[in-house]
Description:
Layout: H1 4-21, H2 34-45, H3 50-54, H4 60-68, H5 72-97, H6 101-115, H7 118-121, H8 130-149, H9 153-167, H10 171-194, H11 198-224, H12 236-244, H13 274-294, H14 296-318, H15 324-327, H16 329-360
Amino acid sequence: MFSAGRFVVCIAVAALLLRLLGPAWQTGFPQEFADSWSYGAVAESGPISWDFWFGQKPPTYPLLIWLFGPSTRAVIVAQTLLAFLSWGWLLSTARTMIRSRSVAIVAIVLIIAIAIQTRWNLWHAILLPESLSATLAVGGIAAWWRWWGDPTRFRTGAATLLTLAWMMTHDSNAITLLAVIGPAFVVVIVMGRRATRPRQRTFSIALAVLIAAGAYSVTAQIVSDRSETSFANDSALSELDAFTSNDLRAYDSFGVADRFPERTLGPIDPAGSPPSMYVWGLLVVMGICLRWVRRRIWAWFSLFLLTTVISDLFLVSVADAADASRQLVGPMLRFSVVAVVVTALAVDEAVTGLRKQDTDG
């Protein structure tokens, strides 16, 4: 049955879609970035060609262009709707998985405040992989969150598929995730010898699949000669300052900043400034420690999310990327979401524990 709540959500999504893409609709979203044409060229080769899988770009975003192109409008609408679905799924997951209603409401408000910021929304109108990469990252967080609560086969497949697709959106995604899931796979295998559990078995299978996908990604980078990266970036801190100052105007081709807020959380924005990142990072570490004491399985979940973000931020900080500010979009968005999710889980644990004590008393 179609409830009033769902009707309101549909109206809100339609309004956001019109506000985001409506003003530039008649222009057809002309693309001015050379990288957009590069992804389009790979898409034109088609998924049955060698160049599609071992060419100059990883395959996920060219596949989206191949599925919905050649119309730029269709691709833009598709990636925007996928983004809305991904954020909606994360919000639904937060409402379901956080036990305290008040904590869930605060977490949902913070996630919405993050999602509507210009620095994330402007990418939906551009034919570049940042939008899809963010969508898959947000969806992956929601999928693994649900899996950690109940590791069914469907949830295992969904989480693995979303993560695999995210790995194939940016080469750096695969490299940074490999740095985490490689040791994680060893830990799971060692723990599995002590106590064989369905959760460990399914997680080890998922990690094995992702390691194989990462091996393919590294091989494709080597074969296509697109893996040449210099690890001598002396401008990382200045790029971080530029990003936290919302210095992404060069990519705002369609004036998204005129229709969406640059900042919504002020000084408490997880990606608002280096000091706020340190504060939220401390909250995350404290949250992991609390979870480790009370519910260790969820501490592993928080640690899994945190380490993937840290490894990605580290790679950007040491790699001499052509555009480090753009490369920071993915890890900074994930840091914002992970900071809110992990902190909310810790606060939820504390609040639920206090309520249980009051009930027992």
